[in-house]
Design brief:
Order of helices and strands: HHHHHHHHHHHHH
Amino acid sequence: MTGAYDPAAEGAQMSFDGRMSYGDYLRLDQILGAQTLLSSAHDEMLFIIQHQTSELWMRLAIHELVAARAAIAGGDLQPAFKMLSRVSRIFEQLNGAWDVLRTMTPSEYTRFRSDLGQSSGFQSHQYREIEYLLGNRNRAMLRPHAHRPEIHARLAAELARPSLYDEAIRLLARNGIAVPEAVLGRDVGAPYAADDGVVEAWRVVYEDPNARWDLYQLAEKLVDLEDYFRRWRFNHVTTVERIIGFKRGTGGTGGVSYLRRMLEVELFPELWRVRTVL
């Protein structure tokens, strides 16, 4: 019988006195100490961790989307493709998180729901920033963040910049494809409205993909992203209805009715409509 395996015999570092360890690098003390339960309910831990991990994934999504927008604005599409694919995978990961949360029953959620007060995912500033980055821009949604001036300022600054989709449309124009001037010169802080002229612009790309391969690839990366984003929204609605039915949300929204309304929002409307005219 051989002795117990000792990783140090192969050179593994075993002493970290005064040296950076795995936990030091990842700040695990702070992360793992951030789950403060407000009730004695067993399932509150699940609820907190599901939302905290979702916020971490959203932080990465913002990091990637900001960089992808800059790459598109600079005409550097290959890195943008990689970043957009990564964001799609992030939303695939976020979709999986709903499966875990759905293991909680209505009876279990009821045990701690009142302890949440008025807090609600509706108030997630990172989710709002992702929507603004992608082009779903509603200035009224700044109001839930007025109590945090630094966050309010960050979101207001995002509204002043062209969205990811604005930059994609501008790229079409820079590549010699006709885009209506009203779209190119629009108020980027206002909600985007679908335009038949932009449908025609994307039609030029889709009717001859080989001639404009990079633009075709960009279009499909955007469609992939919205596809995963729609699934995330749908899973959100289903999870909420399964757990609380049609009660009002803790943040005062209509709950399921509000979330169902969000399912109707199109981020890149002409990329879906162009399929009908091909």
